[in-house]
Design goal:
The complex is a heterodimer of chains A (353) and B (318). In chain A, helix 6 packs antiparallel against helix 8 and helix 12 crosses helix 13. Chain A has a two-stranded antiparallel ribbon. The termini of chain A are far apart. Helix content of chain A is 75%, strand content 1%. Chain A is an all-alpha fold and 353 residues long. Chain A has 3 domains: 35 residues; 233 residues, no CATH class; 67 residues. Chain A is globular. Chain B is an alpha/beta fold and 318 residues long. Chain B has 2 domains: 212 residues, P-loop containing nucleotide triphosphate hydrolases (Rossmann fold, 3-Layer(aba) Sandwich); 70 residues, 2-Layer Sandwich (Alpha-Beta Plaits), CATH 3.30.70.260. In chain B, the strands form 3 sheets. Chain B has a 6-stranded mixed beta sheet with strand order 6-7-8-3-9-10, sandwiched between helices. A 4-stranded antiparallel beta sheet of chain B has the order 2-1-4-5, with helices on one face. In chain B, a hairpin with a 2-residue loop joins strand 4 and strand 5. The chains are: A mainly alpha (353), B alpha/beta (318). Chains A and B meet through helix 2, helix 7 and helix 16 of A and helix 2 and helix 3 of B.
């Protein structure tokens, strides 16, 4: 019996290992392809900053998140017992936030293919020595990068949302802490090298430094905070930091899904306006599902189905409370991958239509 | 260098091109000639890998366009019709972007960009936004882009469309010069252009190749008959002219204050002296007599005009 169970486990583990290996290989292939198309990636990303849309979206987004942060701050600083258990829940569970969020992915994706089709530049792109999936992946990663950029300023709210205390620094120099600090310094120097014009030799040195720094600081940090008793830097958080991490994870993946949806729509139509409207309607399905009937019986099967689609509910109930429900991750991931696949196919079909 | 056989492309039920076959030998400049909607752009798009053919085969430099598209695209420089560009980029940025896409990086990229900037006379607008360039400069940017990767084959779709006469002349000279290093297939519906720049010509009409040969051969075909134009003052009865030896065909046209006879003669027939004496005898006032060279244009019109043109079908969908 024992042997049978062990054999079973070994089988499962080896199957998982093989899957992981395949996944790694596919990921590596995609990364190499993306690297070869880096010039397109760079253009797509910088194109956001050459049109006013990027700035409009950035400002709009900052106003809304700033307002939500203000509301949360009021709750957190209310006299008497503190008014909120999960600050992230107040920020991301809000319907107003999702109604604004609804407009952002369509605004970011509408021009990606629709504009190229209407101006005819798609012809230049499709006759360049790139595969269709490289074109799609570059555009997708560029708009995902802009989406991440959109969220970066909100990191400034974190010290308050986590109720961080004044950091305690002490000279606890052990080999591990030295390794961590040295790694961080190496990363800093690597970024500095990337900014200075040193040519390809400088870039290679920078890349090596960056890799060494990341690995060194990672190992050093892990060891330092797990093995050593005294720490170089300690920050106490008054509020559990995990909900913040899961919220950002959820936001990244949900954004990945909406952007992939918008990319697909953009590849199907010629007009940017139509692309934005259609992807807005499609995103609406995922966003309004939760608001549709607030009075709905939460135990009914219909609600269970709606809950599966409703992104705001995922955030108000799971991600912002530190829960990672794999069902949501699977939904976001699979819709994103499906949409990207369909985008490649839609691009390909343009050749034989 | 370019080998096309039995290429057919349907847009829905409409055949844009049907069984198009031709060859472009290495190092030649070949003109691809045809009226609008004849299928020039479709054929070029198939060669460039933007469209796939419904049937048939196209091979460039030994690589099949359908099966090895990346190898083919590395070997061609393609300039689409109207030359679509990203208007919000600067010329130098655009060229860097295109060079990166074509796999040129670092020092090679800088060298090639410098070369094409100088070759296409773009050096003085390198920092200008593409969207603010004039049509002529945009075409040059498109051509510079096509030249970036130093391709062995250049496919240029109407490279002189929309240019002013001096720009047209300059770009023709450029094409001629480039023809020494690259194999060029260029499409146009302007005939003198073909006569000036190309070694041979492929005439396509309503989706089919109707003629394909070198310019000398075409000239011979076109010159089987010679035509005389004879202008007289006043009204002239052409009947006696018809009886002269060597006259194949005769037309009378009215011109201002007179009559013009358009006389087609057999090659080698010496008509003018006889005409002069006839005019003297009849008392016709001969105003002008000149041989009329049959140009490629007339040959082209004869081929294309054989059938009544059908209603223009929009073959250019996207």
């Amino acid at each position: 019996m024992l042997v049978a169970v062990q054999a079973n486990e070994i089988l499962t583990l080896s199957a998982l290992g093989v899957l992981l290996l395949i996944g790694l290989l596919v990921g590596l292939y995609l990364l190499v392809g993306l690297f070869k198309a880096r010039s397109l990636l760079r253009r797509e990303f910088s194109a956001y900053f050459l049109s006013p849309i990027a700035y409009v979206v950035l400002v709009l987004f900052l106003v809304v998140t700033g307002h939500l942060f203000y509301l949360t701050l009021e709750q957190l600083t209310a006299s008497g017992p503190k008014g909120v258990e999960f600050p992230m829940q107040l920020m991301l569970g809000d319907e107003r936030f999702w109604l604004v969020f609804l407009f952002i992915p369509p605004l970011l994706t509408m021009r990606l293919f629709a504009e190229e089709r209407s101006t005819g530049t798609l012809e230049m792109l499709m006759t360049a020595p790139l595969r269709d999936w490289q074109v799609v992946a570059s555009k997708y990663v560029a708009c995902l990068g802009f989406y991440v950029l959109l969220w970066l300023p909100t990191l400034a709210y974190l010290p308050v949302l986590l109720d961080l205390q004044r950091p305690i620094m002490q000279p606890a120099w052990t080999p591990l802490s030295l390794c961590m600090v040295g790694g961080m310094a190496a990363v800093f120097v690597a970024f500095l090298l990337a900014l200075l014009p040193f040519g390809s030799a400088g870039r290679i040195v920078g890349l090596v430094l960056l890799l060494a720094g990341v690995v060194g600081s990672g190992i050093g940090a892990w060891g330092h905070y797990h093995v050593d008793t005294e720490h170089v830097l300690e920050i106490q958080a008054g509020i559990d930091p995990m909900p913040v991490l899961t919220s950002y994870l959820g936001l990244f993946l949900a954004g990945a899904m909406f952007l992939a949806l918008g990319l697909l729509v953009s590849s199907l139509v010629r007009s940017q306006m139509v692309a934005a409207l259609v992807s807005l309607v499609l995103s609406l399905v995922f966003i309004v599902a939760g608001f549709w009937r607030p009075d709905m019986d939460t135990s009914s099967p219909a609600y269970q189905v709606l809950y599966f689609f409703s992104v705001p509910l995922h955030f108000s109930r799971d991600f912002s409370r530190g829960l990672v429900d794999t069902r949501h991750l699977v939904l976001y991931g699979s819709v994103a991958v499906f949409c990207l696949f369909m985008t490649v196919r839609s691009l390909e079909s343009r050749r034989w239509r | 260098m370019i080998h096309v056989s039995e290429l057919t492309k349907y847009y829905g039920d409409y055949a844009a091109i049907q069984n198009v076959s031709f060859d472009v030998p290495a190092g030649k400049v070949v003109g691809f000639l045809g009226p609008n909607g004849a299928g020039k752009t479709t054929t070029m798009r198939i060669l460039a890998g933007f469209l796939t053919a419904t049937s048939g085969q196209a091979v460039i430099d030994g690589y099949d366009v359908f099966w090895e598209p990346l190898e083919v695209r590395r070997r061609i420089g393609y300039m689409p019709e109207n030359c679509p560009l990203y208007g919000e980029m600067r010329v130098i940025e655009y060229l860097r972007f295109r060079a990166g896409i074509k796999g040129l990086h670092g020092r090679v990229q800088r060298q090639r960009i410098d070369y094409v900037l100088q070759r296409c006379w773009l050096a003085d607008v390198r920092r200008q936004l593409v969207g603010t360039l004039s049509k002529g400069y945009r075409q040059r940017v498109g051509l510079a882009d096509a030249l970036l990767a130093d391709p062995s084959v250049l496919i240029l779709d109407e490279p002189t469309a929309g240019l002013d006469p001096s720009q047209i002349r300059a770009s023709r000279e450029l094409v001629r010069e480039l023809g020494q290093q690259h194999t060029i297939l260029l499409s146009t519906h302007i005939l003198p252009e073909v006569e000036m720049t190309c070694d041979s010509v492929i005439i396509i009409h309503r989706g089919q190749v109707v003629a394909s040969s070198s310019l000398q051969e075409l000239g011979k075909q076109a010159g089987e008959q010679t035509t005389l134009l004879v202008d007289f003052d006043g009204v002239v009865d052409p009947a006696p002219v018809r009886t002269l030896p060597g006259v194949v065909h005769l037309e009378r046209e009215k011109i201002v204050n007179g009559t013009r006879l358009r006389i087609a003669t057999e090659a080698g027939a010496e008509l003018p002296p006889q005409l002069c004496s006839l005019a003297m005898a009849r008392g016709w006032k001969l105003r002008e007599l000149r041989p009329h060279q049959q140009t490629l244009e007339e040959f082209f019109l004869r081929i294309v005009g054989q059938e009544e043109p059908v209603a223009e079908v929009a073959g250019k969908k996207r």
